[in-house]
Amino acid sequence: MPFVSRIQRQTDYGLFPSATPIVIDNGASYFRIGWAGENDPRVIFRNIVQRPRHKATGETVTVVGDHDPALLKYFDCTRSGPRSAFDSNVVYQFETMEYILDFGFDRLGANGPEIDHPVLITECVCNPVYSRSKMAELLFETYGVPSVAFGVDAAFSYKYNQQHGICAKDGLAMSSGFTTTHVIPFVDGEPIYKGSCRTNIGGYHVTDYFKQLLSLKYPHHMTRFTWEKIEDLKMEHCYIAPDYALEAQLFQKGSKEAEDKTRRWQLPWVPPVVEEGPSEEELARRAAIKERQGQRLREMAEAKRSSRINELENELRGLAFLLKQLEQVGQEDVPSFLAETGYASKQEIESAHAKATQSLRKAKGEPKAEQVESDEKIDPFADEKFSLLNVPDNMLSAEQLKEKRRLNFLKTTTEGRQRAKQKRMEEELERERKNREDEERRLANPVLYLEQLHIKYKELCEKVEQRKRLKTNGGNTNGNNLSGGVGRGERLNAAQRERMRLLTTAAFDRGKGEDTFGAKDEDWQLYKLMSKDNDDDDDEQDPEEAELTRISSRLQEIDPTFIPKAELGTSQQVVEVPKFRPLTKEDFQVILGVERFRCPEILFNPNLVGIDQAGMDEMAGVSIRRLSCDSKDVKDRLTQSILITGGSSLFPGISERLEARIRMIRPCGSPIRVVRASDPVLDAWHGASMYASALQFPSQTFTRMDYYEKGEDWLRRYQLMKL
Amino acid sequence: MEPDVIEAELVLPNYFSFKKIQSFEKYPKGQSSARRFKHLKQIIQAENFQNYPPDEPNYVNIESPPSMHPSKRICDITGYEAPYHDPRTKLRYANTGVFKVIRSLPNEYVQRYLALRNAAVVLR
């Protein structure tokens, strides 16, 4: 049953005489308050306090209990999570406790100058005296309560059930609360705290475990797993398996029973709107438009080319004409003729002519032939040029020597270029061959090829990541101080050591007035050396990165389910959601299979969450042992009436499990009977109310005077007695 | 305050007639309550339970001993019985399929799974 809160303000406070005690069940999960002698508590709310800031006014307000989340939108709740007054099952935060008591009394209808009724409040087993005294102080000082009594909630529950005949006078009470679980033996109606036993596992831990498991399994739905929702799920779906191992095996085999026991939680999901693929005519129309555009572009390009060709031809004709004229004109008139045209000499005209022919040919679209021609032209050109080289040195003049050196240089460069081209062609051939081989291999055995490729990709990824990590670790995070990584004893590679050496030598103070750094220009070269960009790692890294990108692109082509690792640190999801297939309904389902019985299992087996204490079944044995009664029949009587109470005892299957387990520790044939309290959640309050309405109750309370006179030691030994 | 907030009486009022000392007088603003109150560990320490006779039950006395039963090893991820554990990540797993998943988990998730079992490495 989900959270139940009853916070209606009661109006009949004044009707109760001041002798009527107020009964408070101060639990770590819920706070219940009411009048003694009644059947049910008047006010119930969750025992938490929030202090959000009001968005409009900015003041910090207090909100007690859990409220309608819609109303909380007026408040800024980021810095104020829900706070509890409890630490494990002991009250320690009395400011929070005061807010809660304020709220509780207020809703009960209190309106006098002080609370004029005796108060019976519950506490945990063997409550430390510090907590007890602070609580008493709070009640006496701030609320003016005349007298106070403390009692243990499990004991009240047992007494109540005993009155109603559900359990006998002697027995064990197993109370499983929010943060702890207690086992208390009762002999002759009285709790024997010496034999009691406490494990720090409760409903809170079960819910927390459940929440963590679901969050880890479905990380992309994490926002949906709020505490309240998970509690609801726990209360509705969790159960305790009679034997954990058998149940787990059922699920592992995937049998039909396991399937029946699996529950699916469908999160709200809207299927994405599927776009209708463009229809045929649409496609045809689009294709036609594209073609027309292409056509237009081509026509424009064509027109431009032809106009350029025309221009060039015109130019060519003009130049040819000029040349002819030049030939006709006599030698003397050449300079004047040339001055008119604007060219300095015949060679110039000729070279312009040659250039124009070249461009024309290029424009007309004979590029390859052109290049070959130019290559060929270079070679004979080179030969005739380099003829000078063949002539030995001593026969040349100084000028010719210079010429020769230049020609030498040219020759080496052209030869180098040729060699480079040759190598490039060879590499091309090599790559082609490799690709062909690759393709063949792929076609031959696609699966194996794919796996190999994946493995290679992973290795490369790891290497690159490692390299990057080394770089950033050894270097640093923001490039400002170099010693960030060094101080912690990081190993430096050669480049970093070099840099450190340079830095230290440069910074070394050679004494006053001796610093001549910067006088020479070469000194500044030091900074270039120190610069981080000069890592020689880059050379080693680039081919690997290139290889990586190549492989990833190959994988993307071939393998439809491959997702490239975009950057370092992207968290991979345990449940992969490939991004290029549409999310289906199943992706939004949360499957509760094994978790249903795995989470409450921690009540019996706290080792599952790392708490090294006994589970509920073993605690019964411990408790009986601690009683140190030797007679067998006392133990039998204890196990004959085992009462389970407390909020966390509502899991189905708990009684059967307990019975089976306790049978294992007791000798064969001993009687065992496990009963559940009539109302595990509210029985503590019922028992307390019944106790408070008895006539002798006032003798059990203590007043403010008692508290001050008798002191702390008396308070420590204070205990409710049997009436 | 918005009308529906007042209507629902969400906020705790500052003044109560039945209180002798009001909250705002007792707890002046600005001091954090966390420092004012002792936590359970400090309370227990201050009690000096060892001074009292060990027979009497007190808060520390009644704590349960460690479990005597052999601990059940279940797979961290699936919850099945797990006879194996991964030396690199220290997680327990039930079969090879789970093992593959474990090896592909990023470190954050590994630590969270271990934290569930209280076995994570905590650097303090």
Please describe what this structure looks like.
The complex is a heterodimer of chains A (723) and B (124). In chain A, 51% of the residues lie in helices and 11% in strands. Chain A is an alpha+beta fold and 723 residues long. Residues 367-384, 474-489 and 566-579 of chain A have low confidence and may be disordered. Chain B has 124 residues and is mostly helical. Helix content of chain B is 32%, strand content 3%. Chain B has helices at residues 3-8, 23-26, 33-36, 40-47, 96-103, 107-116, and strands spanning 84-85, 92-93. Chain B has a two-stranded antiparallel sheet with strand order 1-2. In chain B, a hairpin with a 6-residue loop joins strand 1 (84-85) and strand 2. Chain B is flat and about 65 Å long. Chain B starts with a helix and ends in an 8-residue tail after the last helix. The model of chain B has no long low-confidence stretch (mean pLDDT 82). At the A-B interface, strand 6, helix 1, helix 2, strand 16 and helix 4 of A face helix 1, helix 4 and helix 6 of B.
Observed structural traits:
heterodimer; A: 723 residues; alpha+beta; 21 strands; 11% strand; B: 124 residues; mainly alpha; 3% strand; flat
Largest sheet of chain A: 6 strands, mixed
Low-pLDDT residue intervals, each spanning 5 or more residues of chain A: 367-384, 474-489, 566-579
Helical content of chain B stands at 25-40%
Strand ordering within the main sheet of chain B: 1-2
**Largest interface, counted by CB within 8 Å of the partner chain's CB:** A-B, 84 and 65 residues
**Rg result of chain A:** 46 Å
- The coarse overall form of chain B would be flat
Gyration radius of chain B, in Å: 25 Å
Which stretches of chain B are low in confidence, meaning pLDDT under 50 for 5 or more residues running? Answer: none
Taking all residues together, what is the mean pLDDT of chain B? 82
Class by alpha and beta content of chain A:
alpha+beta
DSSP summary, beta strand count of chain B? 2
Structural class of chain B: mainly alpha
Oligomer: heterodimer
Q: Determine the strand fraction of chain B and express it as a percent band.
A: under 5%
Number of helices of chain A: 24
Into which percent range does the helicity of residues of chain A fall?
Answer: 40-55%
Q: How far is the N terminus from the C terminus of chain A? A: 35 Å
Q: How large a portion of the residues of chain A is in β-strands, by DSSP E?
A: 5-15%
With helices defined by DSSP (H or I, 4 residues minimum), what is the helix count of chain B? 6
Strand order of the largest sheet of chain A: 3-2-1-11-12-21
